[in-house]
Structure formats: C-alpha cells, structure tokens
Fold this protein.
Amino acid sequence: MNKKGQALVEFVLIFPVFIIIVCTIIELGSINYQKLKLESDLDTVVNMYLKDENYNNYLKNNNLKIDLENESNQVTVKLSKNVKIVTPVLKLIYSSNQKIETERVFYDE
C-alpha cells in the first residue's frame, strides 16, 4: 500500500473545500467590515447634517446612497451601499452585489 498516494488523494479531495471555506470566511469578514465602515460614515453624515454642512460631496466620494426623512423634529437618516461579492459560493447564495444598510433616528431642535 502506498501511503504517499493515499495522502495525496485525501489532500486533493479536501483542499478545494478548505479553500472555499476560507474564502467565504474572508468575504463575510469583508462585508462585516463594510457594514462597520458604513456605521462610521453615518455618524459623519449625521454630524454634517447637524452642523448644516454640505454632505452630498461626502456621499458622492464614498459611493453612498441616503434616504432622509424629516417629520416634525424627528429625523431618520438611512445610508446604503452595494458591496460586490467575489467568492463564488456566496454568489450562489446572494446576488453579485449585497446591499448593506444602516439607519439612525435623532431629534433635530
């Protein structure tokens, strides 16, 4: 019995699965990082809104979409961004782009 051949066959069978799992973990980590960055961008946009600064250039430079709702003194700001999916396994589960969103509600006086 050839032990080296047996190990090679096991490696050839397991290696692609291992690579797919590692790439998927990296992709999900990237999406989570983009979500955290979007939260930070939302803080920046809300601060600019409260200071009456022009936040449109910031949104345009960071490729962000905003949905702003102003009811009496309650303001709802929603930011969204499309994140491109690279891993083939996640493309089967999701579409080629994943939309991430975050929302903040505050009171403007």
